[in-house]
Specification:
The chain is α/β, with parallel strands linked by helices. It is built from seven helices and ten strands. It has helices at about 1-15, 55-70, 85-90, 115-125, 155-165, 195-200, 215-240, and strands spanning about 20-25, 30-35, 45-50, 75-80, 130-135, 145-150, 175, 180, 185, 205-210.
Length: about 240
């Protein structure tokens, strides 16, 4: 239940003195962002999880990240997290929201509404150098990712290498009917949040797909480890800027 998740989220934010800020409501359920680190950073990184309510490892990895992250790792950084982007779907364990809409297919056009509008306003204002969306493929036993880039970037290859320590990687030439290479589907033009962030000029955009048919604990741990990897990469980008 989303209410149980919020209890855990509020508890860890109180314990660690992280800022938990309401950003809107959907069907009487609040959406939150968590803010960590500097207010005038060298770089900002944004994480989003739970845009599909049946993909639970991402929101649970967010809790683990908040519980375990050492504040020294955040030196020079601002980290913003959307723990659950689709609270009505999360509440029901369903991919779609209460209107039977796949939220991640509604980030196109000039007039956004509902969850996409709330998320866009928050994420646009953040001006991140790195955006990471935590997804799962509930039908998969293998890991893969979507990446958005101007040229081949080592950071995405590093994520694949990390994932191989936990799960097999999907190395098919096509994934979800899209051309793929070494577990990566690159620069998909669609109506997703990820492509919107890339279109808006975010330099590094990553969407990871942990395999939903693998043990939950391993999926949570991998997502947590990838979040740490993204933080390390963003810190290097901030120093290089």
């Amino acid at each position: 239940m989303y209410s149980d998740y919020l209890k855990a989220l509020r508890a860890v934010c109180r314990k660690r003195h992280f800022s938990l800020v309401p950003i809107g409501h959907v069907k009487h359920r609040p959406l939150y962002k968590v803010a960590l680190g500097k207010t005038k950073p060298l770089a900002t990184v944004v994480f989003s999880a739970g845009i599909h309510g049946d993909e639970i490892a991402g929101p649970l990895a967010v809790l683990r990240f908040l519980e375990k992250i050492q504040k020294r790792r955040l030196a020079g950084l601002r980290v913003l997290i959307i723990p659950v982007a689709n609270p009505t779907g999360f509440d029901r364990g369903k991919r779609r929201n209460y209107q039977n809409r796949d939220i991640n297919r509604h980030f196109a056009g000039k007039s956004l509404e509902g969850e996409p509008k709330i998320l866009y306003n928050v994420l646009k204002a953040a001006n991140p150098v790195f955006f990471h969306s935590l997804h799962e493929d509930v039908d998969e036993k293998r890991f893969y990712l979507y990446n958005y880039e101007q040229q081949e970037e080592k950071v995405y290859r590093d994520v694949i290498a990390l994932a191989k320590r936990y799960f097999p990687v999907n190395t098919a030439r096509k994934i979800c009917n899209r051309p793929a290479r070494d577990g990566m589907v690159t620069n998909v033009r669609d109506k997703s949040l990820e492509y919107m962030m890339f279109r808006e000029g975010v330099p590094f955009v990553l969407c990871t797909e942990s395999p939903g048919r693998q043990p939950l604990e391993k999926r949570i741990e991998l997502n947590y480890r990838i979040m740490l990897s993204v933080v390390r990469s963003a810190k290097k980008m901030g120093k290089a800027a």
